[in-house]
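Q: What residues go here?
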């Protein structure tokens, strides 16, 4: 009888443990990103905008560092000439730049030039296909590059309102605000680029829209690291 009672107790304990394990698996994961979301909203609330303020853009995607040339709109052609990687301080683990150049042409005439993250030397695990956003009305082109899934850059070619389309365009390097994830998560959230125009980058983050002026988010140094 004693053995039967012990066996029944063991079965009951095993059942409780099993049920506890199931409940653990069914329990929804804790919300880890609420604080970073709130911090992002508070920090950038002055840049909030409405849906009807977001300009229309033509969006396309390029073939990573294999990109050579593509037509943009009716008049523009963007070309990429890959060059070598440069270690700024002579240190292979230090900051880098490249000799690679984007060249922008309007009806065959070069109107802009910018440095690319991509190079003839592969860095890290590889490059992600660049994305292009063109606003024909404002004649603004944004090139978004991502290298080794960690290093990101926005390059803006923009026609000045005081010039004609065929004259030289201004080139700006900008960084887009991101929302850090919880410390248990490895990545940051960079949101979704919705458009460019009027000297601003339009970004959607957590369902909210923001209009970030280029001049408020200029990238001061082109040196970069990977990882």
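A:
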């Amino acid at each position: 009888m004693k053995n039967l009672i012990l066996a029944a107790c063991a079965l009951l304990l095993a059942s409780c443990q099993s049920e506890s394990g199931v409940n653990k698996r069914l329990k929804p994961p804790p919300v880890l990103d609420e604080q970073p979301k709130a911090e992002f909203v508070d920090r950038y609330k002055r840049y909030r905008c409405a849906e009807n303020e977001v300009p229309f853009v033509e969006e396309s995607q390029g073939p990573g560092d294999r990109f050579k040339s593509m037509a943009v709109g009716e008049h523009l052609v963007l070309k990429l000439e890959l060059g070598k990687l440069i270690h700024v301080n002579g240190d292979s683990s230090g900051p880098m730049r490249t000799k690679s150049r984007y060249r922008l042409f309007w009806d065959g005439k070069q109107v802009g030039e910018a440095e690319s993250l991509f190079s003839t030397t592969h860095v890290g695990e590889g490059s992600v296909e660049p994305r292009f956003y063109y606003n024909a009305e404002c004649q603004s082109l944004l090139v978004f590059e991502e290298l080794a899934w960690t290093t990101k850059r926005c390059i803006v070619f923009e026609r000045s309102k005081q010039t004609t389309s065929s004259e030289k365009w201004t080139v700006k390097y900008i960084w887009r605000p991101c929302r850090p994830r919880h410390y248990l998560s490895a990545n940051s959230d960079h949101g979704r680029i919705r458009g460019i125009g009027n000297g601003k980058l339009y970004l959607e983050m957590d369902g909210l829209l923001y209009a970030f002026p280029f001049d408020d988010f200029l990238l001061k140094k082109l040196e970069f690291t990977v990882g």
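A: Context that may help when evaluating the design: Confidence is low (pLDDT under 50) at residues 18-25, 183-187. The first strand starts at residue 58 and ends at 61.
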